[in-house]
Each structure stands twice: as structure tokens, then as C-alpha cells.
């Protein structure tokens, strides 16, 4: 009798686990299906980023998607507007089906590049597909947590465990939290919480947070013209030859320079004459820049 009960409990556990797995997959898929059913949709969102190297970054954004199934690269035209640090006029990125265009209203110029696939992948819709792809490869990485209230909205709570490991006794992890409105099926918020040793030489905490709101669906005025370069905008004018920066040819003697060292003391190239000098240019808010510190420390002649 006891053996039969144990088998029954095991069967029930498998059934419940399967139902939970299907539930979280259904929630995610229903959200993707809902967004992709619209001819066009837009929303506003606030993006916050906090890392050890800089103050909290806050960006106000608005993005508009127009479904274009014939476009094989993304399937959408999109327009991304964002403002931060007291900007009076938003910077605009728009994908018109050919190239990603960056508009600069300050001087009415635009720049063309081919980052549209990357920009789309980093968007809400691209992010949802990314979560779906990972969960299909490894279902255990996506779990459904208890329903919760986020931004005053009763929401489903899904957690994607991207990374969870112990290295040198440090618990390192990357978790993506997705909150979906239970009433509308639309995303409310997306957060990243991580503890990582990927940046620089120390283990650091890092987070991002996005809040999505003011959804507008199937607007009549959203068509291909909305994603065209506005009248009056033009490519930047080429600088005259005498204003262009000319790179030093290999083997050229470096010009004299004076900089401050890590002790805030002036150091000049003339003081270092006869020594091997390596200059590394980096920005403290960029992870890849900070990752150069470890290999630089391993060079016997480098002093940081």
C-alpha cells in the first residue's frame, strides 16, 4: 500500500510540474501572440540602470511598431524616441525597412547605420522572443513566481535564470524578471538583477528596470510615412580637410602630452622619456572597458 502511495505522489508531482511549465509558457506565448496580432502598437517606458561605475541612468522612451511581414529582417518598422539628462528634444531612431536612421534635431542631421537587428533584439518584443528561445532550449531556466502587484497592477511574475553559479566562493547570477498584466496580457515591467564578476576586477551588483505604460493599439495615423526621414533633415556635412583628425602613422614620435595620474599628479611624456609607455583610453561606465583592467594588471611594465 505504501509503495502505491509513493508512486501516486510521484505521478502527481510530475503532473503538477508539467502543468506549471505549461502555464508559464502559455503566459509568455499569449503575450507575444497578443502583441503580434496588432497592425501597430506603441507604448512609453522608463528605463533605469544602476551599476557600480556610474550614477543611476534614467531614460524616458517611446517606441512605435508597425507590422510589415514582408520585411524579413525584423518583421516591423519601428521608431524609438528617448530623452535623458535634461534633453529638451528627444533623440529619434527609426527603421524604415532599409536602414536604422538616427535623427539629431539640434542640427537637423541624420546618420545611417545597420544596427536595426540589434536594436530590435533589445526592444520589448525582441526581449520576449529571447526569453522564449532560452526557455524552449532549457525549460528549467524559466520559472513562474507568485503573482504580485507591480506599479499598482496585478501581474504574473516570470523569472528567467540566465546564470547561477559559484566562482571563488562568490554567488554569481543574472535573473530577468518579467511582469505581465493579468487583465490585459501586456507587459508591465521588465527587470534585470545580477551579481557579476564580468566587469573589471571586483564582484559587483548591477540592475536595470523598465516600466511599460500608455499602450496604444492599431492607430489610424501609423503608416510607412511615419518612419520616413522628416523633411529638412540632411546627412552631416563633411569636415574640411584641415579640420579632420589625422591619425599618427606607425613609428611616428608621439607628440608631447601632460595628463593626471591616479594620484592626481601631473605626468608628461617628457618625464617618461626612455621608458615604455602604454596609454589605455576607457570610460568607467562601460563594462568592456573595465574588463581590460585585469589583463593590463598582468603586464609586468604597466602601473595603473
Structure in words:
The radius of gyration is 25 Å and the shape is globular. Helices cover 21% and strands 38% of the residues. It has helices at 2-36, 116-121, 124-137, 287-290, 293-297, and strands at 40-51, 54-67, 76-83, 91-95, 100-104, 109-113, 142-150, 153-167, 170-181, 187-196, 204-217, 258-260, 266-268. It has two domains: 20-227, outer membrane lipoprotein receptor (LolB), chain A (Clam); 242-304, no CATH class. The protein is built from five helices and 13 strands. Helix 1 packs antiparallel against helix 3 (124-137). With 304 residues, it is α+β, with helices and mostly antiparallel strands. It starts with a helix and ends in a 7-residue tail after the last helix. The strands form two sheets. It has an eleven-stranded antiparallel beta sheet with strand order 6-5-4-3-2-1-11-10-9-8-7, with helices on one face.
Walk me through the topology:
Layout: H1 2-36, E1 40-51, E2 54-67, E3 76-83, E4 91-95, E5 100-104, E6 109-113, H2 116-121, H3 124-137, E7 142-150, E8 153-167, E9 170-181, E10 187-196, E11 204-217, E12 258-260, E13 266-268, H4 287-290, H5 293-297
Antiparallel strand pairs: 1-2, 1-11, 2-3, 3-4, 4-5, 5-6, 7-8, 8-9, 9-10, 10-11, 12-13
Helix pairs in contact: 1-3
CATH architecture of the largest domain: Clam
**Order of strands in the sheet with the most strands?**
6-5-4-3-2-1-11-10-9-8-7
Percent helix range: 10-25%
Quick one: overall form? Answer: globular
- CATH domain fold name of the largest domain: outer membrane lipoprotein receptor (LolB), chain A
CATH homologous superfamily grouping of the largest domain: Lipoprotein localisation LolA/LolB/LppX
Q: Oligomerization state of this entry?
A: single chain
SSE class: alpha+beta
Number of helices: 5
Number of strands: 13
Q: What is the residue-mean pLDDT, rounded to a whole number?
A: 85
Low confidence ranges? 7-19
**Whole-number tally of structural domains:** 2
Distance between the termini: 71 Å
Which CATH class of the largest domain is shown?
A: Mainly Beta
Strand-residue proportion: 35-45%
The major sheet is characterized as: 11 strands, antiparallel
Calculate Rg over CA atoms.
Answer: 25 Å
The H-and-E topology, N to C, reads as HEEEEEEHHEEEEEEEHH
Keywords: Signal
Organism: Pedobacter hartonius
Signal peptide: 1-23
InterPro entries: Thioredoxin-like_sf (IPR036249)
